[in-house]
């Protein structure tokens, strides 16, 4: 699917990609909001009977994308699994991103970067936009050094029609020790972060903004009130499948935000390879469930 473009007023020479949120909403309707996690770990590659090498990894990823064809809205390569093979692995990630985009999907690079502002400029240039090192449409970040430290990534995303997903409530239970710690004003760290994200999105004034949030699909229903503080964010919800959550859990726990949510599945799909038919069956199952949950509301 060719990327639709618009031109910024006063700048007729540089086409700007449509905003990530707009592209996602269209794809969620036409395909499904499902996010396919691409995690070429050593155990999965070996489970498929492949060599844990650059060639094996490339074959693994190409097979998953062949099965996904043009049916998936978002593909999320997990950077760490590519990085572990050094430059060859990173080259595979770049190829995978190009292939996913050529199949009309959005490429969300799950790299969870979180350094101070000057260094985040480098990560933004590496990951976001067609003219970046890896050409991603979005990336994940962490805010342990403060949300202001993430500004270069947030600003670059706004400028090139990309998105940033800030981890607010991770899917792993031990992360809650930090994320549920209480500020003096009675808000948890996660709630305060969510409020700050909404302030930034409100500044752009264009509906759903370019700063999304990562909220694990595994969170307790009681903790999902943090979503009420993110009315202008897309929400990445990993934890469906291998970590025990279901698409129905996302619908039940995420309330009104479910319509803006990307439920994400990695291992529960990837473990069905190397058969393309097996992968496709799993992809379609989650894709259809996510589509139905989205359209029912
Ligand atoms: O940002 C993420 O995608 C993420 C956040 C989080 O809180 N928990 C989480 O598991 N993930 C990612 O989701 C993927 C795991 O997905 P499953 O294999 O489906 O459990 C890995 O790539 C994780 O890095």
From TrEMBL:
- Keyword DNA repair in the entry? The reply is no
SMART domains per the UniProt record, alphabetical: OMPdecase
Chain ranges of the Orotidine 5'-phosphate decarboxylase domain: 33-282
Q: What is its EC number?
A: 4.1.1.23
Q: What is the lineage of its organism?
A: Bacteria, Pseudomonadati, Pseudomonadota, Alphaproteobacteria, Hyphomicrobiales
Which branch of life, at top level?
A: Bacteria
Q: What is this protein called?
A: Orotidine-5'-phosphate decarboxylase
GO molecular function list: orotidine-5'-phosphate decarboxylase activity
Q: Which EC main class describes this enzyme?
A: lyase
Give GO terms for biological process: 'de novo' pyrimidine nucleobase biosynthetic process; 'de novo' UMP biosynthetic process
Keyword Lyase attached = yes
Instruction: Read off the InterPro entries from this record.
Output: Aldolase_TIM (IPR013785), OMPdecase_type-2 (IPR011995), OMPdeCOase_dom (IPR001754), RibuloseP-bd_barrel (IPR011060)
Reaction equation(s) it catalyzes: orotidine 5'-phosphate + H(+) = UMP + CO2
Give the family from UniProt: Belongs to the OMP decarboxylase family. Type 2 subfamily.
Pathway, per record: Pyrimidine metabolism; UMP biosynthesis via de novo pathway; UMP from orotate: step 2/2
Key words of the record = Decarboxylase, Lyase, Pyrimidine biosynthesis
């Amino acid at each position: 699917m060719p990327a639709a473009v618009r031109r910024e007023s006063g700048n007729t020479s540089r086409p700007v990609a449509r905003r990530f949120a707009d592209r996602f909403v269209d794809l969620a309707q036409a395909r499904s909001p499902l996010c396919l996690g691409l995690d070429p770990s050593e155990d999965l590659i070996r489970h498929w009977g492949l060599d844990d090498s650059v060639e094996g990894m490339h074959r693994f990823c190409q097979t998953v994308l062949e099965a996904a064809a043009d049916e998936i809205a978002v593909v999320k390569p997990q950077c760490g699994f590519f990085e572990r093979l050094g430059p060859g692995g990173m080259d595979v990630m770049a190829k995978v991103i190009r292939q996913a985009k050529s199949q009309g999907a959005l490429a969300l690079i799950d790299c969870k970067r979180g350094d101070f502002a000057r260094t985040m400029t480098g990560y933004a240039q590496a990951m976001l936009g067609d003219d970046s090192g890896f050409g991603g449409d979005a990336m994940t970040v962490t805010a342990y050094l403060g949300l202001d430290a993430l500004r270069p990534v947030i600003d670059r995303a706004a400028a090139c029609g990309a998105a940033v997903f800030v981890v607010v409530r991770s899917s792993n239970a031990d992360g809650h020790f930090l994320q549920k710690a209480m500020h003096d004003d009675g808000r948890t760290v996660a709630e305060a972060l969510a409020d700050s994200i909404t302030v930034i999105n409100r500044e752009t004034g264009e509906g759903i903004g370019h700063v999304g949030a990562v909220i694990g699909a595994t969170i307790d229903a009681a903790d999902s009130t943090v979503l009420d503080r993110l009315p202008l964010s897309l929400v990445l919800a990993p934890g469906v499948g291998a970590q025990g959550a279901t698409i129905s859990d996302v619908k039940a726990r995420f309330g009104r935000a479910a319509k803006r949510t990307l439920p994400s599945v990695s291992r529960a799909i990837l473990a069905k390879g190397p058969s393309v038919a097996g992968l496709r069956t799993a992809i379609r199952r989650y894709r259809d469930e996510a589509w139905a949950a989205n359209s029912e509301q």
